[in-house]
Amino acid sequence: MTGYPTSIGSSDESTITLLGKNLADELMGQVGFGELAFWLVAMRRPTPGELRVFESVLVALADHGLTPSAIAARLTLTGAPESVQGALAAGLLGGGSRFLGVTEDAGRFLADALAGHQEVGNELPTTDDGWDNLARAAVRAQKEAGRLVPGLGHPVHKNGDPRTPALLRIADEEGLRGPHLRLFEAVGRVHPELLGRTLPLNGAGVCGAALCDLGFHGDILRGFALLARAAGLVGHLAEEMRRPIGTAVYNEVHHATEYQPPSG
């Protein structure tokens, strides 16, 4: 018989084991949810500094108001009030290249730039000028390929995303302002000369950089963004139950609809 190995958890009639620990006796009441989420993915417990940065990322990504994901969740609940799971899923399904997915995209962009720099035998920079040169090469490559630079720009915070300096400060205080964050900062300094305009370093991008500096691979970063946003969406759904706006949103769109018969 073929086995199905897992290092996450298991259970029997009387016990639940998670990450090699007795869930009831060794984890409940002793490990916070953020620490557990880190541990489940990294397969190791975070240091106190790592946990502070990690939980700051989760808080930064939990909610951003009535965004498309929140609206989708609320409207789904309006149509199917018995399906909280469907409403939550509807909100999470919108985590893509414009919302939430930027965390992954920025992390991949920075990690690829660093890997390409080191693959040809270069050492990581030790000065701001060195980081700026590396950032110029990375931004130039994106521009020449006709791709956007992930982590730049925000539809609301056009003059600066307040999450970015806060997370940089926290990472610095914990000694975790690593190469991905330093390169991200450098992108912020040099991109105007290459793109011809100045854009803010957004919160999703700095979160991706911070997660990479914590050792997480780009493939899992969107999962953390969705984990964080799930908390915000549950809050929106609870508020929708208490003080619904879904029907009003639907009615406003319905009455503002201008039907245009197809031409041709």
What does this protein structure show overall?
With 264 residues, this protein is mostly helical. Among the domains are: 9-45, no CATH class; 102-217, Cytochrome p450-Terp, domain 2 (Orthogonal Bundle), CATH 1.10.230.10. It is built from twelve helices and three strands. It has helices spanning 23-27, 33-42, 48-61, 68-79, 84-92, 102-119, 128-144, 163-173, 179-195, 203-213, 221-242, 246-256, and strands spanning 9-11, 16-18, 21-22. The model has no long low-confidence stretch (mean pLDDT 95).
If helices are DSSP runs of H or I spanning 4 or more residues, what is the number of helices? 12
Spatial strand order of the main sheet = 1-2-3
**SSE pattern:** EEEHHHHHHHHHHHH
State the helical fraction: 55-70%
The total strand number stands at 3
Question: Percent of residues in beta strands?
Answer: under 5%
Topology at a glance:
Elements: E1 9-11, E2 16-18, E3 21-22, H1 23-27, H2 33-42, H3 48-61, H4 68-79, H5 84-92, H6 102-119, H7 128-144, H8 163-173, H9 179-195, H10 203-213, H11 221-242, H12 246-256
Antiparallel strand pairs: 1-2, 2-3
Helix pairs in contact: 3-8, 3-10, 3-11, 4-5, 4-11, 4-12, 5-11, 6-7, 6-9, 6-10, 7-9, 8-10, 9-10
